[in-house]
């Protein structure tokens, strides 16, 4: 299963509706730890089974409006058909939950993922006052863009349109160190659109907007929306990540209708002092190619992946390293320079750090560079991300020798390549 230990995210506020305490899945009891989200047709819970496994359960309301379990069958069918791509949420299984009230509900057992792009944007919004750039770092925008384009490219090969791509449906996986697409409740086979209303307001492509309003007016529709609607949504998501602002009102404005390219130029112009110009223009042009009004002229996922934007290396912001869990921890403010140059002391420090870090899980490797980059920082690679999350939670704010420890995560790929970021804004 995805995680190898229980997670403890902040508990959501208590809700009046009754939430289940247990699920019985394939003869095993899973305990509900938190409600992660609630929509019109389903609720999502974090569940754990003993020490070894955590997962998510998506429980569908008994749904007579669509003739039975329409939402469940729809999402199950799509997910079963598209399993096996690293940027798509993993479906472990399906089951029926028989509650004491006598109502049987259909459920999906899914991999548990971490923070969503929606939450990342909220957190960035609250902490960007000390940075010149308002939005998320180019490193994060690039990472998310590449992962989502890979997912969309795969969906298109499989003949599917996601039809509800938005920040809340893009989640980080600490285990796989990438973003994944979730929530396939509105998805359909290209050329066979069985969903009347698609996409969420603010991320809806012009052709979907038109089709939705005609459907509302009861007009019989010929033709279908294509995979191009997903590229439009992703273009808006990337523009929001770059700018750090919600664009729902912007895309409704007359200015946007008249000349969306000028609005995009303005957004990029306002953010320019902090960033190198060339990669910023690559990103701007990539987003423009996704936000072509005419779906025939909009770029495809495969073509977008060839953008020069993806060949530029970037570094993350430090707060993103706090928010994006990874099996690797980076501990700051621990080691005195004097410890680094005395070989005996250095070995003692290594042993002490390993012993301390082993308290939270199995340590694969531990590195304390003696020179820059990374001089005196402690890098600890855990066997799995649930252990590093527990360690990060427990070590942050601790004092060693009168110093406050700062514990952030660190990208696994950079650590494995020996690439230690020198400075992080």
TrEMBL record:
RRM domain segment(s): 327-405
Matching PANTHER family: SERINE/THREONINE-PROTEIN KINASE KIST (PTHR46962), SERINE_THREONINE-PROTEIN KINASE KIST (PTHR46962:SF1)
Single GO cellular component term: nucleus
CDD domains noted in UniProt: RRM_UHMK1 (cd12465)
GO molecular function terms listed in the Swiss-Prot or TrEMBL record: ATP binding; protein serine/threonine kinase activity; ribonucleoprotein complex binding; RNA binding
Protein name per Swiss-Prot or TrEMBL: U2AF homology motif (UHM) kinase 1
Domain Protein kinase: from-to ranges: 30-310
Alphabetized PROSITE patterns for the sequence: PROTEIN_KINASE_ATP, PROTEIN_KINASE_DOM, RRM
A single GO BP: regulation of protein export from nucleus
Keywords annotated in UniProt: ATP-binding, Nucleotide-binding, RNA-binding
Annotated positions binding ATP: 58
Domain of life of the native organism: Eukaryota
């Amino acid at each position: 299963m995805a995680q190898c230990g229980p997670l403890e995210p902040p508990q959501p506020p208590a809700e009046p509706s009754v939430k289940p305490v247990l699920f019985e899945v394939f003869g095993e009891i899973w305990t509900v730890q938190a409600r992660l989200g609630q929509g019109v047709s389903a609720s999502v819970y974090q569940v754990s089974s003993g020490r070894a496994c955590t997962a998510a359960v998506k429980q569908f309301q008994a749904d007579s409006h669509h003739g039975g379990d329409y939402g469940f069958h729809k999402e199950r069918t799509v997910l079963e058909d598209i399993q096996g791509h690293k940027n798509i949420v993993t479906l472990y299984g399906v089951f029926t939950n028989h509650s004491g009230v006598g109502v049987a509900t259909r459920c999906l057992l899914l991999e548990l993922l971490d923070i969503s792009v929606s939450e990342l944007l909220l957190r960035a919004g609250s902490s960007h006052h000390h940075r010149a750039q308002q939005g998320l770092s180019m490193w994060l925008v690039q990472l998310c863009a590449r992962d989502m384009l890979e997912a969309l490219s795969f969906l298109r090969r499989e003949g599917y349109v996601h039809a509800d791509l938005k920040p809340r449906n893009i989640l980080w996986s600490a285990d796989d160190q990438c973003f994944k697409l979730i929530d396939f409740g509105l998805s359909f086979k290209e050329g066979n659109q069985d969903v009347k209303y698609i996409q969420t307001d603010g991320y809806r492509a012009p052709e979907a907007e038109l089709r939705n309003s005609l459907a509302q007016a009861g007009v019989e529709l010929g033709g279908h929306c294509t995979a191009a609607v997903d590229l439009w949504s992703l273009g808006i998501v990337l523009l929001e990540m770059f700018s750090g602002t919600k664009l729902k009102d912007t895309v409704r404005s007359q200015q946007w209708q008249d000349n969306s390219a000028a609005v995009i130029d303005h957004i990029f112009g306002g953010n320019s002092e902090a960033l190198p110009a060339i990669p910023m223009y690559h990103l701007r042009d990539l987003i423009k190619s996704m936000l072509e009004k005419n779906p025939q002229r909009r770029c495809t996922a495969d073509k977008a992946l060839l953008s020069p934007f993806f060949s530029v290396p970037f570094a993350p912001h430090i707060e993103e390293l706090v928010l994006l869990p990874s099996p690797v921890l980076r501990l700051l403010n621990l080691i005195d320079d004097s410890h680094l140059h005395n070989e005996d002391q250095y070995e003692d420090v290594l042993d002490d750090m390993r012993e301390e870090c082993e308290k939270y899980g199995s340590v694969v490797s531990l590195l304390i560079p003696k020179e820059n980059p990374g001089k005196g920082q402690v890098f600890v690679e855990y066997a799995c991300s649930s252990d590093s999350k527990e360690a990060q939670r427990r070590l942050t704010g601790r004092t060693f020798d009168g110093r406050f420890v700062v514990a952030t995560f660190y990208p696994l790929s950079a650590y494995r390549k020996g690439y230690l970021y020198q400075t992080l804004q």
